[in-house]
Specification:
This protein is α+β, with helices and mostly antiparallel strands. It has one domain.
Length: 74
């Protein structure tokens, strides 16, 4: 269990993650985090490139089959 303090960072508020936590997450400066609501609080995880790649493929498919999807939605 880690206790973090909310701090003022510029005009915003934030928390600083300890180095060992960042290492466990496999994170480094500039990486993106995903904050997900869980039953007992929140879950922090490393944003995976797989999701972005999956969305890119889905968007290409939706663009290619736009007319078909429009007809199916009626």
């Amino acid at each position: 269990m880690k206790h973090l303090k909310v701090r003022k960072i510029g005009n915003s508020l934030g928390v600083v993650l300890p180095k060992d936590v960042l290492e466990q997450l496999g994170m480094s400066e500039g990486d993106n985090l995903v904050l997900t609501k869980a039953e007992d609080g929140f879950k922090i995880s490393h944003e995976e490139d797989k999701f972005a790649k999956t969305m890119e493929i889905a968007e290409r498919g939706m663009k290619k089959y736009r007319n078909t999807l429009r007809e199916l939605s009626k």
